Fold this protein.
Amino acid sequence: MTNTRHSFLLKAILLLFCSFLFSTSHAQITADELRQIKGMEDTLRIYGDSLINSPLEENRTIASYRIIKTLSRALKVKNSFYYQWDTLLPWKIITPEDDSFKMFLWYTRSDIDAYKYYGTIQMRSDTLRMFPLIDYSDYTDKPENITVDNENWYGALYYGVKTVKVGKVKYYTLFGWDGNNLTSNKKIIDILWFQKGSPRFGAPIIQPEKGKLVNRFILEFANDASATLNYNGIEKKIIYDHITPNGDALEGFYANYIPDGTYEGFEWKRNKWRHVDNIAYEKRKDGDVPNVGNKKSFDLYKPIPAK
């Protein structure tokens, strides 16, 4: 009898706990708000199909601008920050450890494999606080050395974030991919921080070599190669492939740079991401980036076969 009573009590506590979790996780957004956003999510899914699968560059560009308009309308719905978006929409959503904002990120691809990036930062709030991201990378000189705002963003498709602090300032270390062009790809470490509530990108807290600080780190390599760059929570380091010229290729011509099977990285020490050389070999896991790997295979959405 005692065991039965204990079992019944335990089940009651578990049911109460689960009910509490369910109610608190959904308390911030109402059924009407869910309905409004869900309708726009269905529209975004259609535009996403065109963005990824359309053979016409013009249609892909139009789809991207329609995504901007529809997403903006969706984010204006009260409590939209708490909405759980479908994972098969045409973007990456990045959320830091403190859950203070969300970044929505996607790209368009031209017929010559040039990439343009789009996105917005939605701050955690019941009402909309949003910062659109304007890709200005085509007009940016020496990106490693500059700090920019959201309207002059060095565009990339981020797939990871690691937060560090210097005093009271939080620096959100972002890991991203840039398809770049026909000959090379890039992996990027950028730093997002907020100044008087507004986003800034780039901060001199990355030290790739002794005596040198950069605002962002760019790893460029051959288009047909695969290089990883991400934060490893077990080793507590940023780890990336060491790349070298392939064979007799010229130094500085990154279309011929490939990983050589060794790794290096950065470790957070004394308020800086400081370079670490010769990290032990182990197959590394990179970020989950939609439609990346084989750039010719854009399979986030499966095209409907012609009848």
Remarks:
- The helical segments are 2-26, 31-53, 57-75.
- The chain has three helices and 16 strands.
- The radius of gyration is 22 Å.
